[in-house]
Design brief:
This protein has six helices and nine strands, in the order αβββββααβαβαββα. It is α+β, with helices and mostly antiparallel strands. The chain has a seven-stranded mixed beta sheet with strand order 4-3-7-6-5-8-9, with helices on one face. Strands 1-2 form a two-stranded antiparallel ribbon.
């Protein structure tokens, strides 16, 4: 009987440990999916600052500059690129979201890949969003993207970060998502709030 009691106590203890582990894991996953804080800056770039200009080659050919969007709000999406399926899936999800489309805010994706690297992805997953090649990460660096919490290779590549620019191309929102699991609807809700504000 004593042996049975010890076994029950051991099983109970193990059960408690497992349950606590599951809860803690859930908390970490949930919190990592959201911005760690209401971000006010990325390195030296902060809310209200004018966005650095850029000119980069597009995966579909030609060059894209920030000046092309003068007078319009723009959503910049800095990401890890071709090797990160959740990154380019986020582009597709936003493009397929009717609420995002209705905002008529152009999105530009910026990643550290050569344009040719995107060919297999784009051919199998047609995207309208310009995907720009920041091969040396000069633009990502100028926007402070290499030190964000979502970056898995800090100082080397960006992670999973959105920057919303207003019509004057001033920074109005910075959303950094280490968990890479924000839904398109959640992102749209934030953008709508910032536009109204």
């Amino acid at each position: 009987m004593k042996h049975s009691g010890k076994s029950s106590d051991l099983l109970f203890t193990i059960g408690v440990i497992v349950a606590v582990g599951i809860v803690l894991t859930g908390i970490v996953i949930f919190s990592n999916g959201r911005p760690s804080t209401p971000l006010a800056k990325t390195g030296s770039l902060k809310i209200g600052d004018s966005a650095p200009s850029f000119e980069l080659a597009s995966a579909t050919g030609g060059k894209v500059t920030l000046n092309q969007y003068d007078g319009k709000p723009v959503l910049l999406y800095f990401n890890e690129g071709v090797g990160c399926q959740p990154c380019w899936k986020q582009i597709i999800d936003l493009e397929n979201n009717e609420s995002f489309s209705s905002l008529k805010i152009p999105m530009v994706a910026i990643a550290p890949n050569d344009p040719s690297d995107w060919s297999p992805v784009v051919s199998n997953n047609p995207m309208q969003t310009p995907i720009l090649a920041d091969i040396e990460n000069a633009v990502s660096k100028s926007y402070g993207m290499l030190t964000m919490k979502s970056s898995m290779h800090k100082g080397v590549n960006p992670g999973h970060t959105f920057i919303l620019l207003d019509a004057e191309h001033k920074v109005t929102w910075i959303g950094d998502y280490p968990g890479m699991n924000m839904t398109a609807s959640e992102i749209v809700t934030v953008i709508k709030d910032k536009i109204r504000g």
